[in-house]
Amino acid sequence: MSPGMDALRVDVAIIGGGAAGLMCARVAGLRGRRVLLIEHAERVGKKILMSGGGRCNFTNTGTSAANFISANPHFCKSALARYTPQDFIALVDKHGIAWHEKELGQLFCNDSSRQIVRMLLDECAAAGVRVETRCSVVRVQQHDRGFALTTTLGEVRAQALVVASGGLSIPRMGATGFGYALARQFGLAVRPTRAGLAPLTLSGTHQQNYHDLSGVALPVEARCNGQRFRAGLLITHRGISGPAILQISSYWQPGDDLRLNLLPDDDAFDALRAQQRAHPDAELRSVLAELLPRRLAQRLCELALPSLPMRQYRGAELRVFAAQLQAWPLVASGSEGYRTAEVTLGGVDTDALSSSTMESREVPGLYFIGEVVDVSGHLGGYNFQWAWSSAHAAGMVA
Ligand code: FDA
After folding, report:
1. Which of 176, 197, 233, 306 has the most CB atoms at less than 10 Å from its CB?
2. Alpha helix segments (H runs only) across the chain
């Protein structure tokens, strides 16, 4: 493929060499389709490489539709049922990649996420897939019963076009709004996008109250809009992060009420009463420091209630304070946005796609898979599973 030459003719052109694009290319290639995978970055699978702290949390054994956010919560079910976490584990095992379960069904490579990219590239090579990196698609038009692509490496004609260009998160890794623009060009609706799985920022007095506690970490239960996640909280210079916050951030919008249960494993009132009986002369802040990180305990006392010897508190006062500890309000001002977000919420409207094939209902031969679709997973390997499953669904028919 080089500029100025006759158009390259393929059965399937796939735009985007990330998790979904690589898997779809493999599956279509194994069916004997001539597949061209187009990636505009200098290498494929950059997000896989950086994922899971370099060890790629490649799936979650507990995957179900409840782990995904979408305007249509049922849309993801068909693809997830037909290419399951067990199917991907079998592929990983076939390549001799050692893995372990970290917690809650989250599977990681023992060694490196590079192994997952290597595996997918080896699979693509075995399936005869042609991979072009540093190649940008300039224009896409419908042509005969297929598609004509103008790329920086020449013209391409394809019977089927699969858009696997991902979302907007981490622009420095090659994220673009290309897939959304292409969907609109072909008349598909795109649901509003925003950053998901992102740290939240605090501002004004809310930031002043906590910024010097940067580095403090503790288990919490974060609650917002009827959702709750029990996991770690990390206080940062700019706001709050950690798995509990990343998870709840996908359900939070500015102005929403965000509450943290700072003692998710205890009944706070019982714990304070027991301390009052055992240590009546101890000050509240020392008692609290037995239950929470010391610096945070001190700050909570400053913000909520003067620190006195425990015997001086009436039961009703302790009950009010305990209730505050279990529903601590945090007024976030915003999210860190796409710069650090792990996913993009929203995207190509699932109403426009077949849930069993990912094909456009109106434009035969046009498919959307992976993160560009309005299906976003929780933290914990679900987003890659969606990439594998949706890619498999399209790869089996494109
Ligand atoms: P993805 O973004 O992977 O790939 C899209 C590809 O298309 C990119 O290679 C991009 O360069 C290319 N592209 C874009 N526009 C193009 C154009 N116009 N022309 C050609 N190519 C174009 N999930 C999970 O399950 N477990 C985990 O451990 C993590 N960890 C994690 C860490 C970090 C830091 C991030 C940012 C994200 C994660 N995720 C994750 C989320 C996961 O990475 C994400 O959901 C998948 O990569 C989505 O796969 P896609 O193939 O849809 O998009």
Report:
1. 197
2. 19-30, 46-50, 77-82, 85-94, 114-126, 178-185, 204-210, 243-249, 268-278, 284-291, 294-304, 315-325, 382-395
- Most ligand 1 atoms within 8 A of CB, residue of 102, 182, 374, 383 to mutate: 383
CATH superfamily of 8-195+342-395: FAD/NAD(P)-binding domain (3.50.50.60)
Ligand 1 site, CB within 6 A: 15-21, 38-41, 46-47, 50-52, 56-57, 136-137, 164-166, 169-170, 174, 176, 178, 342-343, 370-371, 381-384, 387
ipTM: 0.99
Does residue 34 contact residue 128 with C-beta atoms inside 8 Å?
A: yes
- Residue count (the chain): 398
How far, in Å, is the centroid of ligand 1 from the Cα of 48?
7
pLDDT digits (tens, 9 = 90+) for 310-343: 999 999 999 999 999 999 999 999 999 999 999 9
